[in-house]
Structures are given as C-alpha cells and as structure tokens.
Amino acid sequence: MPADQPRFTRDQYPLRHVHLGQSATVGGGRFVAVCEYCGCREIPLIGRLSEEHYQAVDALGVLRRAIESSDAVAVGSAVVALREELITHNESEEAGLFLELGRDEYFAPTIAELLEQHVQFRVLLDRIAGGDWAAYDELEDTLRHHIDREENGLFPATAVAVDGDVWTEIDRLTHAFNHERGREHGHTEAEALQARRGDAGHRKSPAGDEDSTVTKQADERGHTATHTRAPAPRGRRDLVVKLAEGFVLRPAKLDDAASLFALWAQAGLHVGRPESVVEDLAGVLALHPQLVLVAVAGDSIVGSVLGTWDGRRGWINRLATRPDWQGRGVASALLTAVEDGVRALGGGKVNLLIEADNYDVVSYYEGRGYATDDLIFMEKYL
C-alpha cells in the first residue's frame, strides 16, 4: 500500500447501514457489517475471534467449577485448558489485528488497553496455578470487560474503519501465525472460519495429528462449530457475554414490554401506560437495536437500558435495575455496553436526563465520569 494512502477509512461507510446489519456498497465493493446485535460477524477473522471468545468462556466455567469443588488436580487441568484457549487466542490477535490497528492513532489507545489485559490474564492464571485461587474473581471480571470491549467496541469499529488492503494484511499475518501454531489454517481466514463451522479445512488434534473425528454442534442460526472435546452447553449467540454466574446482557425485543413495564415500576421510574412501553420499545428498536439492552438472570429481566443515537451523540434512557439486583454491577454493565456501542457508531459523547425527584442518582453517574451542565430543557407533545 502506498505510504500516502490512508490505511483506515472511517469516513467512507454510512454508519447507519452498517449498524442496522445491512450491506453498504462503496466504490463498487460490498462491505458487510459486523456487530453482535446485527447478527453479522461475516468478516471471517472477526467471526473466528468471536467464536474463540465462547471457547474461552466455556473453559473459564470449567475452572470455576473446579475451584468450587476444591479439587486441586482439576484446577490445575482447567488452568492448562484455559491457558491454551485464551493465550493462543490473544497471541493470534496480537500477531495480526492488534499489530495493524495499533499503528493508527484512533485505535492505539484501545489496543494498548487490551494488550495490558492480555498480560494480566497470564499473571492471574499463574497465580491460580500457584494456589492463589482467590485470583479467579479478578480473572473473570477482567475477561468479562475484555470481551465486551472487543465484541461491542473494537470489532464493530474495525468493520467501519478498516479498508480492504489492511484486512488483507491482517489476514496474511494471522494465517501465518495460525499455520505455525498448528491451528485451523485454511489458505485464508474465510477458510479457517469455515473449518471451525465444520464446512471445510482441517484441524489439528491436541496431539498434533490430523483429527477427522471432531464433533459438531449447530447453533440457533444454523452455523456449525467444531470441537475436539464434548461441547459444553451454549446459550443463544445473541448474548453479549455469559460468564460463570449472575446475569447476561442481550438485545431487548418487543416481547419484553410487559417485563420492562414491571421492572421500571419496581425501580421507581415513571412508566405511564403499558401500551406506551410497547410504542417506546418499538421506536428505539427500529433505530439502533444494538443500544437497546436488557440484563437477564435466569428467566427474569433484572435490568434495562434504552440507548439511542441521533447522529451526533448517544442518549441513555430507562437505565434501571430491579431493587434486589442493585449494587451487583447490572447498571454498570448496561451503561458500558451502550457507551461502547455509541463509540462504535462514531460518537464521542453520551447524554442523559435526570428527573428532579431522582436526584440521588447524580452521584452514581458522576462516579462513571458524567458531569452536569446548566441547560434549560424544553419539550412539546405532538
């Protein structure tokens, strides 16, 4: 690529189409969006890295259960398995995607943060292997944040910002790394992704031999993922991330309206009529569904946020947590997910409004980096 040619083309792609999961045709080429909520992930490298996140989360769950059972032998084996899944995944990112993105000032701060977390994973795994099982909680929290930053921040942003020539170089570097390590290595990342879904290519067994007896598991979208061990149960692929326990985040849907009405009433928000919840939910889902999230524990919705994007800034609406789940990180996880989603859309600012009788929450938002501003709010009902 000529030195004077821009490596990253953030301004070429219409963000609205990208994050509605539609194709944006620019300069005669077809650009396919990637976003957890758009249901895409059709950029092969991102698809593979996202699949590997689920593998790492599965391995983390095995480690948690081993620690809970106080089985030192099982803990040791689980650490080895998690290290194999996570560290090799990290090194693959560093060899291609991170190397290229780190050269751009827009991505460099995020890449630096993620690289620090890669180092932290090694340190925490070493501590657990050495008998400091209390380090597990920090490992889980760090991995939760790391996956969220990639799935809902870095990956959608690269889909918008990175041009074809850079993707080709990232693909080449990543393929070289995977080939050297004996991982899935079709001639391109596209072939590697197909191999992982069971359509083509080949995979090395843990012993290094060709393994033609890998098992297959179809997900709810009809894709097939290959496994060299019995597959652990998986949740729906539209979850942001599911770790060992607690709650998960997922996109809201119209069927959630009744549960949201009850949640907002419990949380002390002004809810109006039940029909208005359906109308409001339908409206925001039609705009940017990746910003409209609920937190789910078991079969119950325990938190919500209706995020919106007006083309210049993001807005936080209906951030609520069920009273018995307050103080457990639900609101923070929802808020972070929307902030990352707005950032991926190209936004640099998030706004919110607080009603006077809810003033006590100001300190919470200040603790999250928000500041008050002296504005006069006006409205008109149509």
Automatic annotation (TrEMBL):
Domain of life: Bacteria
Entry-linked InterPro entries: Acyl_CoA_acyltransferase, Bact_Acetyltransf, GNAT_dom, Hemerythrin-like
Biased composition (Basic and acidic residues): 178-202
MF (Gene Ontology): acyltransferase activity, transferring groups other than amino-acyl groups
Keyword annotations from UniProtKB, A to Z: Acyltransferase, Transferase
The N-acetyltransferase domain, residue ranges: 247-382
Pfam families: Acetyltransf_1, Hemerythrin
UniProt-annotated stretches for the region Disordered: 178-234
UniProt-recorded name of the protein: GNAT family N-acetyltransferase
Source organism of the structure: Propioniciclava tarda
Phylogenetic lineage: Bacteria, Bacillati, Actinomycetota, Actinomycetes, Propionibacteriales
